Amino acid sequence: MLLIADSGSTKTDWRLVDEEGNTIDAVQCKGLNPYFLTETEIAQIIKKEVAPITNGVEKVIFYGAGCGLPEKVDQVKNAIESVLPIKYPTEVYGDILGAARSLLQGQQGITCILGTGANSCVYDGHGIIDNVPSLGYILADWGSGTVLCKDLISLILQEKIDAEIREDFHATYPMDLRQMLDKIYNKPQANRFLASFTPFLLKYAHHKACEKILKDNFRKFFEYYVLAYDEKPLSKAITFTGSIAYHFSDFLHSTAAEYGLAINKIVQHPMNGLVKYHCQTVPAIK
């Protein structure tokens, strides 16, 4: 049996499947980004929350945010293999390759992630052939849940948005200024904290101030993460995955149209496509 994981900075979806792709079990745990968690911490989470569903698993394939560098890949691989008794070596890849395999299978095109973070790549049907630097939420990640909500909270705390929205925000999230700043600047995983306000942004998505945040961010996303590629890839399929892409798809489609582009597919979660890829397109266990 095969255990597939799709991990962002906020959550990790695990799916245990047989060789035909039938789901045997599934579980979700927190995000396992190796930039924010140590090898020991990752192993502890997997042992507690994932190991109970892994009876009979032969191989693990893990796609994760933060798994772009060899040392980060080894960190996750070692953590998995230290707690799960498996027959075949664990495979660990970046989440953007997982997104491309899920959405495009053997097709050529551009795949984008818009969730807690942001990323994109050009995929040739076999592997990634181009990828702009992601850089993270401090330097880039426009359109991600982290940056969208950072911009929203900035307007709220500076009282530059309508009073009714500010009042609703403080009633929904009863934290004072000191507590908010402490969470952002002094506590770990500030990106997850910021992105957690996405439901509130969605509630007011069509308010003029929130619309501006969304449109400005999505324009920057396309300019940096999509238009950076030459014209040939832009003529191929353009696909998106992630909670932000899914819930704000209307804004994403309209922004793409501003640049003369069309989005072929938006899915919230890539897991179903990954199961198809590994069990039908290129079986992982032979």
Automatic annotation (TrEMBL):
A molecular function GO annotation: kinase activity
One Pfam family per UniProt: BcrAD_BadFG
Cross-referenced CDD domains: ASKHA_NBD_PG1100-like
Domain ATPase BadF/BadG/BcrA/BcrD type: 6-257
Keyword Magnesium: no
InterPro entries attached to this UniProt entry: ATPase_BadF (IPR002731), ATPase_NBD (IPR043129), Euk-type_GlcNAc_Kinase (IPR052519)
Keywords carried by this UniProt record: Kinase, Transferase
Entry keyword annotation includes Transferase: yes
Database matches in PANTHER family: N-ACETYL-D-GLUCOSAMINE KINASE
Protein name per its UniProtKB record: N-acetylglucosamine kinase
Species this protein is from: Echinicola strongylocentroti
Organism taxonomic ancestry: Bacteria, Pseudomonadati, Bacteroidota, Cytophagia, Cytophagales
